[in-house]
Amino acid sequence: MNIAIFLASFGISLLELSEAGAVASIYHGIYKNNTPFLYAVLGVLVVLVPTFTLGQFIYLLPLKYVLIASSIILFYFGYRLLRSARRYFKRTKKVSKDDEKKEGVVVVFTISAVEALEAALVILALIDQDYMSSLLGAISASVIVMILTYLLKSQIARIRLPHMKFVLSALLFSLGTLWFNEVFIGLSDLFLPIFFLGFLAFNFLIVKV
Fold first, then answer.
1. Membrane-crossing residues (predicted)?
2. C-alpha–C-alpha distance, residues 66 and 92, integer Å
3. I need a labelling partner for 109 at 20 to 30 A (CA). Which of 22, 81, 115, 131 fits?
4. Would you kindly state where each structural domain of the chain is located, as residue ranges?
5. Residue 27 · residue 162 · CB < 8 Å
């Protein structure tokens, strides 16, 4: 086994999938059952299963079209999260538990798929070097994330849902902008924190207006 490839796959998977676990834990506090975790797992599998089964062929797809389509999806869900957060902060509309639950499974699935895609973009490059080490790294990270999510779900669930939506919206807008940038401009990924801070400011203005 290639230790370097294993650690790289393990590290990126642990980082990205932890965010999916955190979002699922917050919605677990609303559902009071394991539905959010099931949708989180589904979102991750939808991305990682094709990554490891068709990894060699995914390179044949025009990456720019994948990034453009993914960016549009991110902008759409970023808008939905911001709209929902704004309703709460402005108290313009009472959000029912049923509406929150319907929205929740979509949010959990989308965030999980997005985080898995972020990991997959790195893993695809690692697969070419050592498939088995990449696979073991991703599986090991997934197991650890599931254990930590189970142990810490009560603490994570205390995070206020509207505030999480506010921040996640900025994150989705930032990633969408970054991926559009990779296709049309080519700025460094180091601009992601700048995009994120910019969209946090933008979201703050939208919520306050």
1. 6-30, 37-59, 65-82, 103-127, 133-152, 164-184, 190-207
2. 37
3. 131
4. 3-208
5. no
Q: Among 103, 140, 195, 143, which Cα is nearest to 5's? A: 140
- CA-based nearest residue to 44, from 138, 176, 144: 138
The separation between CA 208 and the C-alpha centre of its own chain, rounded to angstroms, equals: 26
Structural tokens at position 202: 């933008």
Structure pTM? Answer: 0.67
DSSP string, 89-100: HHT-SPPPHHHH
> Look-up: residue for tokens 């309703």?
87
CA distance 202 to 20: 24
Residue 24's identity, in one-letter code, is A
Give the DSSP letter string of 10-63: HHHHHHHHHHHHHHHHHHHHHHSSSHHHHHHHHHHHHHHHHHHHSHHHHTTS-H
In one-letter notation, the amino acid at residue 187 is L
